[in-house]
């Protein structure tokens, strides 16, 4: 067995080294996933300390010190990780370490400035969750136990980094949320205010999706692309739908395609499969094998 | 950057303090999520020590000591957490600490007494899983590796606390199970004996659902509400369906509405979308764009 | 409360002991789930050290030592766990410890030998992911953050043990991946080269499924059985479909039944529910309540 | 063996319960030694963050947050422990919890106020160590690696609590330092400025010792009592010597007795055994079986 | 550097293997020091749970479960370690594993039976400490913070194993206590009741020492051998002194030699160096370069 | 209390910042003590893997991988720490980071090369311990449980770094050993082969001490300086004695002064206080208040 262990170790080791040398696309990155998840944990503890940091006494200086310690920690770790990730940024992959560090620090500075606004957005999302779910008994319950809230919180954090063109890190963050919640929101998706996802498992929201204000989604909803046959040649194009304001999409509905627009105020019933636009104010459901689209009488 | 850190810390800190002071609904709770998950971990280790506590020798006093230590721990921690949660209970939010502690201790006493019965129920669920899945090779495999079993185990624990009107804690427990398994069972759901969920990801079972004995569900099944437009005004009403005895519901079927009753012995095919009641003994499937409902010839 | 604790402890303890004595099917196993997950963690760290072991310098001897240490550890722990699991193997449950150890060592030897080939397969899966998803920016991103990649990695590991007839352990491994990713692939499934699952939540692939090369699946796809009414009597029979080469199956489609064959090059649209075979080169979609099956004009 | 375990557990348990009930002097205290050591660790990290907290950038806000977090933590934990310890204080053992808490908070407030002064004293001790030891290469080396410095740091902390009549906790602190350094300074000892102990192992400084400024001790020095035959009847009386300013006491010398005064500027050679007072400015050494006491010609 | 690492690793590895093969005295043992220290930690937590296990409520069943869990753990771990250590026992080094296990279990059985008696002895030692030290304020303080008490507690535990001829383990235990306390008591030493060591650092008590009841020692006392020139040829012979009942030995005194007997009731002053016997009731001190031995007038 | 915490934090923070800015001698170093102790732990695990790494099977490749992993780790961490420490080296404090790194790497290279020789030296020390102590039952016992062996092991490691003029780190290493063992050997001391310290507590060996081969020391022995009145002006001069070959020094003896030479083969009795040279072959003891120096008749 000792020989086997030695042989297999040598074999895989040689292959790792070769992959590393032969290709810029394989095994050359040194991001630290645990560090990135640690950054996320600190961020949610800063944003909602009573729920994610077990802070017992919100009105005290000790909380402030705790928050400051966490934020300093976020700044240090995130700067390091962004600097590494910039090795994959087309404009920075050939720059030296100092230039990458300068740019990483600039990015982290903008990111930190955005945190108070993220908290304001999330408070509106909590309000939307409370208003939208009869089972919700308090704002605290939303923050403590709704997976959809955790997913949108991570998306709002990761989306800021995505807009700043940080490679890889936003995806690692949202995939962590995906693993915890079953909700897969690409960091590129633009999402309006008062957003609420109930239950959440199986929700997929693609990279180029645009979502308006006061939108409510249920479990299993896909906001996706029509076909991926083009593969990498489709990179950068709008491939996912646009959802207007005040739209509700019930469970397991699919809305696909970059030219599909769901108008303001629409209600999409469960299991609908939609690949073309719907005018504002419509209610869409399945009936006799076809989508029924009729004006919504509230 | 130091100034930024200080500024953002001050900003968010002030907002947390303000939220805390201004509203009874924000940030005033001090539940400890990690403690609640620790309670769950101890409970499953007590219920099935060979599988969740790595106990090597089930027939020995050392196991008994281990179980007793865990149960003592559960009693202490759960009493503390219930006492905190009662701050959100309408009858106890204005009571003093001593009265809350007395009530918390009474609740925990009843809860502890229910554990042997919970184990008996779970043994029947294991039997149902073994009988219902040709891929299952032993009872142990069900306990060790079926996410549906873990989800129903947590539900049966949390449901006892829900019936005792403990705020928040049952939901934190079931959302922990949701995160691990993709199965979202509200602690309010009433579930009969010999219950089995296969694969499980995406299953949603709403708060006021009632499920009979010997029911089998597959992945993606929703037992949900018809519309949530009423929001908080719907709180407390029956919004989710009633499922009879001996019903099988295949993958991704949706059964919605508080007045929808699925009769005893029905079989619901995959992807069916049902919003009205079905008589006992029917087999429901999709055909030519409509649901086909015919008597089941076994 | 002390009396309650003592009473309940005695009650459950007695029941555990009785279950253990009365039945070969209850509580007699002593597998260590944490150890099995630790084995998995070491294996993925060996296969892709830059991404799962935070190894910073892939071209160095220190990496080799690290890999060798991990592999030695895997060999020791896995041999122990396989030896325990063989108590449930029909040919070994009545053998003595020495014979079980000999067989466990033989199994682990074959398993270790298969690791370099597993890495080659996984490199092809990464290539398939990169080619198939316009949102993917690099191979590294696939390895770091695609849940479908993690799921197939664990499947390829567990499948080797499944073929060697190791009881229980392969399922514990794939259920760990299921919990992290929402993708439920039974270790028995046979999966070809260049396999890619996008988003992944809700995917279910049954025990006797056979999948060809260059197949792409989206979230919520079920490759399942038609009916489980037969329960344990169906054990060992083909119950799940055969998927040809170059097939794409979009989100939430279900393909069911052991005699269902999807021909090479087919494209299955989202939400299709298929229970009979499809000829090669077809495009299947829903239309007016029926499946539309037409030749695919690429 | 199971019976043995049960029998011995019952036996010792019964004895613990009996000791607890029968006597106010046995097993009724609930201090948490680990918590007290954690308080010490936080205190030294606050006083010298670059050396005991691994803080890398002393001039930054993040350090301030870190220090504030630690100090808040010290306040909470120390208040709890002091409150418990007051059960053994003659004036507070019969008071209720609220009165104990009030007094504990008052004590901790005074203690916290004393920390800046403790740091100033310790900076002088560092200077004394650097000036007094030719082997010392920097102030940092004193702080990082001199056991005598750690022992005096803990003594200066514990002495403040001792003067505030906190039971037990000061001793637990100094015994922790004793265990780490071999230097046993009773928290009651009064020690002047610019104090230095070199090597330190075996040094014992008794409860009622008084030490002047600029005193230097070497390993194995005992400043102790003459006889302990009186036992508890001696409690509270001066039993240990008075050491003047600018005294140096070389290794393994013993100075004993509550009426023994070593005058300013004396030098005591190694191994001297002194039980009566020495006038200022003397040099004491052993010679021909007797102490030689002669004026010191510097 | 990589080559250096590889070269040095190979070099030392080869030497370790060679030492292992060439000699029965080198590197062939597989005792686990951390496990042995863990056993000690559990034992002191069983003996004095309020002080070493942070048990908050001594009069409850949860304490009993906790103690039982710890004792079961001790039995398992100690049996394993004793079995390994028996490879060095002259009567068992050539026996098979089963015989070693049988003997290990017999040893551990006797050891467990001795624990209640050890607790009774230790309670007398606590009484002796309280009576003998005016600085002691309670029994609890002795248990919590006197290093001499910890040292005698470990000695009384290790001595039982020593008498049962367990190789190595007793020494590893007493050296752990030595490291924590500076008190080095060989597990072979026989020590009577009501034993007290004050301060403790530097105390050495040799393997063949015999100590009576009510003996009190101070820091730096050596009860040692006269000459070690004979080396291994002296193994097994009485080499250390006999101390009678009611003897007090003050700090840094040395009493050497296997034929040296200190009679009952003697008082030995600090720094005395004694190599021959002293009659009962004497007071020994230094004077004019010689020992002064006079009757003690109490 | 919040105000107090804030005030004291601000006060100490300001003082730390000021100390840092005002002086090159205060708080500017960023060594990581825990990292240095981690390096030591890895080194002793490489040198004696069966005793300090719990390696169960010394003759296997897995051990080699483990050793290589540890050594790689040592190289990385030690290079970092040496680079930091060079900020205090007179020749490197004004150099840039790259030059410090180059020099650190050169130092670590030499250090690594010395490890096999250190192991050879230590094997001789083990032999000396076994031959010299009748209580020692095996070589393993020496390695497992003799504090003197641990102290000399750390000294031999730290001495190599001291000779390479690494600031601070050697002292932090030996003070760690001092804390564990009570044996204080300055890393500058030169120590010959076959060195043995029995019991060890209280031994002090000064920076400029030179010790020959086959020397044996007992607890409490001081090899120290005569006077430290000169303070820093004495830096670099010989201040401690020279001990010849084959010398035995019994407990608590003190040998002081840089011009004091103890000749080959001398035997120094316990408690002797020696400040001038002794010719070879002498036996020194106390008698009638004076040292008796007579030829040793073996």
Please summarize what this structure is:
Six copies of one chain form a homohexamer. With 298 residues, chain A is an alpha/beta fold.
User: Which two chains have the most extensive interface, and how many residues on each?
Assistant: A-B, 65 and 67 residues
Low-confidence stretches of chain A: none
Q: CATH superfamily of the largest domain in chain A, please?
A: serine acetyltransferase, domain 1
Percent helix range of chain A: 40-55%
End-to-end Cα distance of chain A: 72 Å
Mean pLDDT of chain A: 89
Main β sheet profile of chain A: 6 strands, mixed
Structural class of chain A: alpha/beta
What is the oligomeric state here? Answer: homohexamer
Protein name (chains A, B, C, D, E, F): Serine acetyltransferase
GO molecular function, one term (chains A, B, C, D, E, F): serine O-acetyltransferase activity
InterPro entries (chains A, B, C, D, E, F): LbH_SAT, Ser_AcTrfase_N, Ser_AcTrfase_N_sf, Trimer_LpxA-like_sf
Organism (chains A, B, C, D, E, F): Anaerovibrio lipolyticus
What would you note in describing this structure?
6 copies of one chain form a homohexamer. In chain A, the strands form 3 sheets. Chain A has a 6-stranded mixed sheet. A 5-stranded parallel sheet of chain A has the order 1-4-7-10-13. In chain A, strands 2-5-8-11 form a 4-stranded parallel sheet, with no helix packed on it. In chain A, helix 4 runs antiparallel to helix 5. Chain A is globular and about 65 Å long. The longest helix of chain A is centred in the N-terminal third of the chain and has 25 residues. Chain A starts with a helix and ends with a strand. In chain A, strand 14 and strand 15 form a beta hairpin. Chain A folds into 2 domains: 153 residues, serine acetyltransferase, domain 1; 97 residues, UDP N-Acetylglucosamine Acyltransferase, domain 1, CATH 2.160.10. Chain A has 298 residues and is an alpha/beta fold. Chain A contains 9 helices and 15 strands. Chains in contact: A-B, A-C, A-D, A-F, B-C, B-D, B-E, C-E, C-F, D-E, D-F, E-F. At the C-F interface, helix 4 of C face helix 4 of F.
């Amino acid at each position: 067995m000792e020989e086997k262990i030695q042989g297999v170790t040598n074999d895989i080791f040689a292959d790792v080294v070769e992959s590393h040398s032969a290709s810029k696309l394989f095994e050359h990155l040194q991001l630290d996933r645990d560090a990135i998840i640690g950054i996320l944990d600190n961020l949610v503890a800063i944003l909602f300390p009573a729920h994610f940091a077990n802070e017992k006494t919100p009105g005290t200086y000790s909380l402030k010190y705790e928050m400051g310690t966490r934020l300093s920690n976020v700044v240090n770790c995130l700067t390091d990780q962004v600097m590494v990730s910039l090795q994959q940024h087309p404009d920075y992959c050939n720059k030296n370490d100092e230039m990458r560090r300068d740019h990483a620090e600039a990015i982290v500075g903008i990111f930190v400035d955005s945190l108070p606004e993220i908290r304001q957005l999330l408070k509106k999302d909590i309000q939307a969750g409370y208003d939208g779910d009869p089972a919700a008994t308090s704002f605290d319950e939303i923050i403590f136990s709704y997976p959809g809230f955790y997913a949108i919180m991570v998306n709002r954090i990761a989306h800021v980094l995505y807009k700043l063109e940080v490679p890889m890190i936003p995806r690692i963050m949202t995939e962590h949320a995906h693993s915890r919640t079953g909700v897969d929101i690409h960091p590129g998706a633009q999402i309006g205010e008062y957003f609420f996802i109930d239950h959440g498992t199986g929700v997929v929201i693609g990279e180029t999706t645009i979502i308006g204000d006061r939108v409510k989604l249920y479990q299993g909803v896909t906001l996706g692309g029509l076909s991926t046959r083009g593969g990498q040649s489709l990179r950068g194009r709008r491939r996912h739908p646009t959802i207007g304001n005040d739209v509700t999409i019930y469970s397991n509905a699919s809305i696909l395609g970059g030219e599909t627009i769901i108008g303001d105020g629409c209600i999409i019933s469960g299991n609908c499969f939609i690949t073309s636009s719907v005018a504002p104010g419509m209610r869409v459901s399945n009936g006799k094998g076809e989508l029924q689209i009729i004006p919504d009488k509230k």
